[in-house]
Design a protein that fits this description.
This protein is of the alpha/beta class. The chain folds into 2 domains: about 190 residues, Isopropylmalate Dehydrogenase, CATH 3.40.718; about 130 residues, Isopropylmalate Dehydrogenase (3-Layer(aba) Sandwich). Helices cover about 40% and strands about 15% of the residues. Strands 3-4-2-1-5-12-11-6-7-10-8-9 form a 12-stranded mixed beta sheet, with helices on both faces. α3 links the parallel β3 and β4. α1 crosses α2, α1 crosses α12 and α8 crosses α9.
Length: about 325
């Protein structure tokens, strides 16, 4: 089965994204990666390759389909937008390039010219300075697809674990007030549909964590687990979904427990991200569920501190490209 090539957005060119993209292309055959192209940043990619000691051929392409013709021998790049390479030092010109790359890559995925979009990490503060108003790339993707922000669900996926944060970039003090039955039920339904469509899990097993220590111990350590989370789980089970919990979060990620579920829905950001980054840091992928397009991203940031120092691992970018190709192939099938 042939799918359209994947579109990769450059991310902030001062971060490690150019290096890990170049490294992923050099490992394309060994890793069995489907053809992809990068939107913009040819000079930045050449500079990253030089830093890594890689003799990189960059091929300018006029349309996504041209990537098939050159992918075996050169890294395809669509568009002439570029900036002066400055590893470790983000600039406004770099932010403009990052936003252009993200915007066009997303548009190509929405139109079907690309089978998926893989996004490089961005620096939100620099983007905000040039008018980027969304909290992050997930919300940007939701807007581009005409969806409400809460219809785009972040899932972190690695070889050992999948997690979904119910609340994402929220202050911890605000989380208890944001944990509602409606939000839990809506996100679990989105996760269940997406795991069936994109990951081939017809009846995904979803474990839901508690909010409080020991899942509240029947109200002794907070009432949200008993009064909000448990009723939401009961309602979802009544719909026929394989949902369990609320589980104490301190035990749910032990090796023997992870065999009992396909994904864990966690109540807040760090409850979901600490275990995935501990277990699968170099292979963790951020997947946006609920979109009409496939979107993945390496589960790490710009890492300005190590950009240009040959210290970055391409494992997460390779995993993100592989997962995007697999999900796109399932949708095509």
């Amino acid at each position: 089965m042939t799918i359209a090539p994947l579109a990769i957005s450059l991310g902030d060119p001062a971060g490690i994204a150019p290096e890990v993209i170049v490294e992923a292309w050099t490992q394309r055959k060994a890793q069995g990666l489907v053809p992809f192209f990068v939107v913009g940043g040819a000079a930045v990619l050449r500079a990253a390759a030089a830093t890594l000691g890689i003799d990189l051929q960059v091929a300018a392409i006029a349309s996504p389909g041209d990537a098939f013709d050159v992918f075996d021998t050169a890294l395809p790049v669509l568009g002439g937008e570029d900036c002066v390479p400055s590893p470790g030092t983000p600039t406004l010109d770099g932010a403009r390039l990052a936003l252009h790359s993200l915007t066009l890559a997303t548009q190509l995925a929405v139109s079907g010219a690309a089978s998926a979009v893989v996004t490089g990490p961005i620096a939100k503060s620099k983007l905000a300075a040039i008018g980027f108003t969304q909290p992050g790339q997930t919300e940007f993707l939701a807007d581009a697809c005409g969806l409400a922000h809460d219809e785009a669900v972040m899932m972190l996926a690695g070889p050992s674990l999948r997690t979904v944060p119910l609340t994402v970039h929220e202050a911890l003090a605000a989380v208890p007030g944001l944990v509602t039955r409606a939000l839990i039920e809506r996100k679990v339904r989105i996760v269940a549909r997406a795991l069936a469509r994109d990951f081939g899990l017809a009846a995904p097993r979803i474990a839901v964590t508690g909010l409080n220590p020991h899942a509240g111990e029947d109200g002794r350590m907070g009432t949200e687990d008993r009064d909000v989370i448990a009723p939401a789980i009961a309602a979802l089970r009544a719909e026929g979904l394989a949902v369990t919990g609320p589980h104490p979060a301190d035990a749910l990620f032990a090796a023997h427990e992870r065999t009992r579920y396909d994904v864990a829905l966690c109540m807040y950001h760090d409850q979901a991200l600490i275990p995935i980054k501990t277990l699968d840091f170099d292979q963790g992928v951020n997947v946006t569920l609920g979109l009409p397009i496939v979107r993945t991203s390496p589960d790490h940031g710009t890492a300005f501190a190590i950009a240009g120092k040959r210290e970055a691992s391409a494992g997460a970018m390779i995993a993100a490209i592989r997962m995007a190709g697999e999900c796109a192939a399932r949708r095509t099938a």
